[in-house]
TrEMBL record:
PROSITE patterns xrefs: RCC1_2, RCC1_3
Protein name (Swiss-Prot/TrEMBL): RCC1-like domain-containing protein
Residues forming coiled coils: none
GO molecular-function terms, A-Z: guanyl-nucleotide exchange factor activity; rRNA binding
Amino acid sequence: RRMALAAGARLGRRLSGPGPWRGHWTAAGRSRSRRETAEAEADAPVFQYVGERATRADRIFVWGFSFSGALGVPTFVLPGSGPQPRAGSRPRRRIQAVPYRLELDQKISSAACGYGFTLLSSKTKDVTKVWGMGLNKDSQLGFHRSRKDKTRGYEYVLEPSPVPLPLDRPQETQVLQVSCGRAHSLVLTDSEGGDGRVGTAFPLLGLKRLVQLSHVYMGNNSYGQCGRKVVENEVYSESHKVHRMQDFDGQVVQVACGQDHSLFLTDKGEVYSCGWGADGQTGLGHYNITSAPTKLAGDLAGVNVVQVATYGDCCLAVSVDGSLFGWGNSEYLQLASVTDSTQVNVPRSLPFSGVGRVKQAASGGTGCAVLNGEGHVFVWGYGILGKGPNLMETALPEMIPPTLFGLTEFNPGVQVSRIRCGLSHFAALTNRGELFVWGKNIRGCLGIGRLEDQYFPWRVTMPGEPVDVACGVDHMVLHLNVLPGSLEPGLGLGTAWTAQQRQPLGLWLGPERVGALRVVCRAPRQPGVV
């Protein structure tokens, strides 16, 4: 026994002392190379302990197609400077298939995804309240002066850049919401000290002013979607113009951009629309262009509406009593439950049986979804609806099994709390702080680490608790609450970069609660995940 103890002591001194053996022994008994040691350390869990009462921080994550600039990460788009990239420079990345943290100093309160561009807004008291990034060929992000030629503007904005708004009292004004269409944008502010206004800026991104709530719009106005008169042969690119809308009968409390039309909801529960109406999406009883916001009637007459939803050419509205209404395009069975027409130009009541009281609605390019008061999600229309490859079209809503959102006998309280949709995919947030996505995975827009379409709700792994999410055509933006220190500056999911070196990271798995502490683990890089 003494001999065994002595041998153990000698071996311990040998491993802990100087020399090539210290800390480099493998299970096979051979010494480990420096490269193997570095790889082992990189794959080891990273434990981070945060106090029970730690305050969470707001973070923005982006993923999907990057070459439009909509993700706001310039190094994804631009190669290294010079004919040969310098050491440590990032290669171009066309698709970011997993969530990536966007570096921002501002606290973002609202986000919207257009067709290749993004708007972010903050309720800050600073002069700058809105930032834009991505495609800007119709000035849907405003005018961003070129550094090389001061008389020209950028058609692609590769990083979050301030969008100037025509506010009389900018420090007293808060931006409440932003919304993006195919080539125009809407910005809803509070009252600049009392009256609320809505605006749109630039040819497609116009800013317009309302007496109560303020509405600003920007971008393309070819079809009157910015709520102003259509000017023949108007040039929208590199426009300095910012527009504010005329008065509504009441305060605008929500704005929603369709493909080439706009919806406005007032505090009186009334809905106004303008823009392209060839599919009936303006809901005004005709199929023409409407350049001034006009109140809808039809089955919405006298109804108190609390939410409107549109992204493609089909529109949905939810009333205060949980009833659902729809109008616009019905080529994909969106409104087939009440009419055989493929274009519906007046709001129609959609008395779906078995759905219950509707709480929220989402309307994409070919599919629709509603969330009822019990936290259940119903889908209908055409495409990948979330119930597997066998359900590709239906005129009547079908419920996605709650178990696909995490409901089990051990977690009986799980409910979906919010639904969103892009052109051909959906997203749902649960009351347990989880994000689920499904649908067409165009250019990695689902953020699930692969490019295949997703036929069932799939949970997106995040290092915190989702607050809200915005869906576009081929990208998404997520507002997240994270624990302080769980993500160092410059780090995101996937490969992270600093100014000095490349730091490959795996997927974040935490935070996972352990007693009074929280543990954030870093998993080894998985094959096929960037």
